[in-house]
């Protein structure tokens, strides 16, 4: 019974972690009414939680193998109580940066589930299972949609304090419902890293996830304030539109994993990065709100599909080192959400527009498309070579039998 609870429990854990992770960016239009933040620093403040949320993914993925998901989720939620309370009492930009840095723990818990959950299911279901766990990304939509609505009624500081109650509830749930007997893997972390860092597929997958999950995080933290300042939308309207982006990306993540269980995952990534390239070019021309929405929604679909497909590929190519590889790949995805908002802000400060930033995204997506096509045909060539060698071996055995 406990084993069957792990997928829904860990998915809910991820929802909460991501809800906490984006508190600052979701409430930034309200926070700036009370705390003076220079326009050039806004992107940095909203992106700060992504830093620790990326770096910690490697150790959390590793410790999930050592101690089990139950202990790692428990400790993570206990630690999150402190920065959440600190932010609710913030009065300066420095307070937001300090508290925001440690909010990153909420984003780092992602690598716990993708390391733990495949232990409970056969290989042919790993894509779908990791995709369903990825529905936890919906936590960013929940906060982005609901936090502004609650803040209009009770203020942003009390809204942040409400998250303390949710954290306490999930600390109790994990204590009683977490799996105390999860299978453990105790290979030293440096030994695991040495076993994978020379494999080029690790870095290819890291680049792909840097784009897919990175764009998901980047748009999540960048859209609320951008839609208000660039299109003069109401704060709640901007929050709802951002929540829609997140919901679509989250919805397509399990679909991507499910499709990757049934079709060639690399072929699916070819289509994903082709659409990415076109959508980013569309955004680069700074269209009106209608075309901008179309471009954003196309990127949401691709981000969700790509995220689901990539975490089918990781356990397929790195079965015994899945924990450390999940940590490295997901760290790179998190960092992919840190740099774009800052880069866009810097480009806008220098040029007065965001076009160059979106063109850079299109070019990186195009480069990834070329790499995926190369990997796809390399995989097909390997299959053909193995079939040829197998056929040659069979013919040799037949000739030996005839000679007898």
Question: How would you characterize the overall build of this protein?
Answer:
This protein is globular. With 404 residues, the protein is mainly α. The protein starts with a helix and ends with a helix. The model has no long low-confidence stretch (mean pLDDT 84). Helix content is 84%, strand content 0%. α3 runs antiparallel to α12.
Give a short overview.
By secondary structure, this protein is an all-alpha fold. The chain has helices spanning 2-21, 23-31, 42-55, 57-67, 69-88, 93-108, 110-116, 126-133, 138-154, 156-177, 189-194, 200-231, 235-262, 265-284, 289-317, 322-351, 355-403.
Task: Give the topology, please.
Blueprint: H1 2-21, H2 23-31, H3 42-55, H4 57-67, H5 69-88, H6 93-108, H7 110-116, H8 126-133, H9 138-154, H10 156-177, H11 189-194, H12 200-231, H13 235-262, H14 265-284, H15 289-317, H16 322-351, H17 355-403
Helix pairs in contact: 1-5, 1-6, 1-9, 1-10, 2-9, 2-12, 3-6, 3-12, 3-16, 4-5, 4-7, 4-16, 5-6, 5-10, 7-16, 8-13, 8-15, 9-10, 9-13, 12-13, 12-15, 12-16, 12-17, 13-15, 14-15, 14-17
């Amino acid at each position: 019974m406990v084993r069957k609870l792990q997928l829904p429990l860990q998915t809910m854990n991820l929802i909460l972690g991501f809800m906490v992770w984006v508190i600052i960016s979701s409430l930034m239009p309200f926070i700036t009414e009370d705390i003076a933040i220079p326009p050039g620093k806004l992107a940095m403040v909203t992106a700060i939680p992504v830093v620790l949320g990326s770096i910690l993914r490697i150790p959390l993925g590793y410790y999930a193998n050592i101690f089990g998901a139950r202990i790692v989720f428990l400790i993570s939620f206990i630690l999150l109580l402190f920065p959440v309370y600190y932010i609710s009492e913030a009065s300066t930009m420095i307070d937001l940066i300090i508290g925001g840095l440690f909010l990153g723990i909420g984003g780092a818990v992602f690598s716990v589930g993708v390391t733990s959950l495949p232990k409970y299911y056969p290989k042919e279901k790993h894509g779908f299972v990791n995709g369903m766990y990825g529905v936890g990304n919906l936590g960013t939509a929940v906060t982005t949609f609901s936090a502004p609505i609650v803040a209009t009624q009770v203020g942003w500081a009390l809204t942040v304090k409400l998250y303390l109650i949710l954290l306490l509830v999930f600390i109790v749930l994990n204590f009683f419902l977490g799996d105390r007997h999860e299978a453990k893997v105790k290979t030293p972390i440096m030994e695991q890293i040495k076993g994978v860092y020379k494999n080029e597929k690790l870095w290819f997958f890291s680049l792909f996830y840097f784009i897919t999950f990175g764009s998901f995080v980047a748009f999540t933290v960048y859209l609320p304030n951008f839609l208000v300042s660039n299109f003069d939308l109401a704060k709640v309207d901007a929050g709802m539109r951002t929540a829609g982006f997140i919901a679509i990306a989250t919805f397509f993540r399990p679909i991507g994993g499910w499709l990757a269980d049934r079709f060639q995952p690399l072929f699916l990534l070819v289509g994903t990065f082709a659409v990415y390239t076109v959508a980013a070019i569309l955004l680069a021309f700074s269209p009106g709100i209608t075309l901008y929405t179309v471009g954003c929604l196309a990127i949401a679909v691709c981000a969700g599909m790509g995220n689901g497909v990539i975490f089918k590929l990781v356990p397929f190519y790195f079965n015994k080192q899945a924990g450390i590889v999940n940590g490295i790949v997901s760290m790179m995805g998190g960092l992919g959400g840190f740099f774009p908002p800052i880069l866009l802000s810097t480009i806008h400060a220098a040029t007065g527009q965001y076009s160059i930033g979106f063109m850079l995204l299109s070019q990186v997506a195009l480069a990834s498309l070329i790499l995926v096509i190369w990997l796809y045909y390399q995989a097909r060539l390997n299959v053909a070579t193995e079939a040829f060698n197998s056929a040659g071996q069979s013919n040799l055995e037949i000739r030996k039998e005839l000679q007898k």
